[in-house]
Amino acid sequence: MAKGPRYRRPLRRRNEGKTNYHRRLKLIKSRSLRAVIRASNNNIIVQLIESKTGGDKILISAFSKELSINFGWKANTGNIPAAYLTGYLAGLRAKKLNFTEAILDLGIFYHHNRVLAAFKGLLDAGINIPYREEFFPENFEERINGSHIENYAKYLKTEDPDIYQQRFSGYLKKQKIDPLKMGQYFSTTLKTIENNV
Fold it and tell me: Cα–Cα distance between 59 and 33 in angstroms, integer?
């Protein structure tokens, strides 16, 4: 460990790899609402945050567990379609309270595709956030509506039913849903969100 009169330990969150304080300072100086998207293995959180001197104030929040509790989502709450739906839910809530613009705050960027799916949900709900078109990968729409899960399930079911049962055991046994109907689950949940927010 370094020693001496000029040595200074880094801040705890920087040391843990959770916060980039130089980037955060630039975002706060812009005085815009920040669209904060955080993903873990099982959940997605989308928030619109206003930075104030006394601390950040959360104005809008959406949590992916809400999809299964309030909107009839049957699949995993940590996958790409759930991330999109969570972003869309947060965007509709923001529009309802007349928040139309924000800037994207990615923080330390983990879980790339799920964060991008939640961001796409915010954009599709009508929140104006600056971005470049190259930000999204090719064929991203297919991944958002869950058709990539359907296609993979169809392929495994015809090629190797044992691996199909093993890979989709969480859907088939625990959640009792058909992975071949993922697009249908996505569209019904999307309509439920639009009708109830």
Answer: 9
Three-state DSSP state, 43: coil
Name residue, tokens 């994207």.
104
Question: Helix, strand, or coil here: 104?
Answer: strand
CATH of domain 12-196: 3.30.420.100
Kindly report the backbone phi and psi dihedral angles of residue 116, in degrees, each rounded to the nearest multiple of 5, phi listed first.
-65, -35
Cα separation, 38 vs 166, whole angstroms:
29
Q: Read off the pTM.
A: 0.86
Distance from C-alpha of 153 to C-alpha of 163, rounded to nearest angstrom: 10
Which of 46-55, 120-129, 144-153 is modeled with the greatest confidence? 120-129
Residue 1: the pLDDT is 60
Q: Vertex 58, ends 95 and 135: CA angle to 5°? A: 65
End-to-end, the C-alpha distance of the chain in Å comes to 53
